[in-house]
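hiii so my PI (J.) wants the whole complex modelled not just the main chain, which honestly fair. so below is everything: two entries, each one labled with what it is. i double checked the lines twice but i was tired so who knows lol
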Amino acid sequence: MRIKEERLDSTEILNRFLAGIERRAFRMARLATSDDDEALDLVQDVMLSFVSRYAGKPEGEWAPLFYRTLQNRIVDWHRRTGVRNRFRAWFGGGGEGEEESDPLENLADNSSPDPLVSLQRSDLGEAIESAVRRLPLRQRQAFLLRAWEGLDTAQTAFVMGCSEGSVKTHYSRAIHTLRDFLKEYAP
Amino acid sequence: MSPEERNERLVAMVKEHLDTRADALDDRTAARLRSIRLQAVESAEGKRGWFRFPRWIAVGGFATAAVAVLAVSLWMTGPRRESAVATADDIEIVAAQEQMQFYEDIEFYRWLAAQENGG
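here's the output for the full assembly
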């Protein structure tokens, strides 16, 4: 009976951990892929792989392990997409500027009552969204993990599979690139 | 404003945007994420059911296996009994059926020779 209760507890802890992380994981995957379905597939793959390999690890180690799995999958996705795009280019498929299209950009924002405020927020939001998406992959990883997820340098280095010095370099470059992209809006 | 402060403000602005976007996911995406999570948690439950034994069973099983391996290896490397057949010459003697009979009757032949010598 007690073993069953402990199992339920650990399942509930795992459920809470994944619930707390799923939206950010999706957003990271979405920023990398620019596609909702691709991002959801990535998150599904990552969650199943994480649970099968690391669910037995101590809870304190879960976040870096989860993000390491996610970042590896994102890098794999980039490689696959790169190869696919090269094949398309050779065989003449794919339209010009196809990668840049983002369905979110065409959606109207009806949530704000003030059209002017809404427009300003929307502009800023889109500018930030676009700036983060345009960051080089390693810079984006370093920025999202350090600034958004709050991982320290050592944890980020573990997740990215590089040295702490590289993390600091990527992070610093990411800030400069973002400042460049957001010149108009930057404080 | 120092460059560090400007950087901190920039980071805070981007973080706020990312948080807002993460909180404002559409219903379809949120539902799919929930379903993916439940599927993952379910797979963890299944995995535990099959593979998670209490630790004392795993430790006890390992200790038993180790003792068994040790016992078998000691038994295999223990002192061997002396073989009844020591050399190749002995093997030849044992293998030859006629010679065996000769050795079995050797006492008779000795007695016969003694009789002949005496007579």
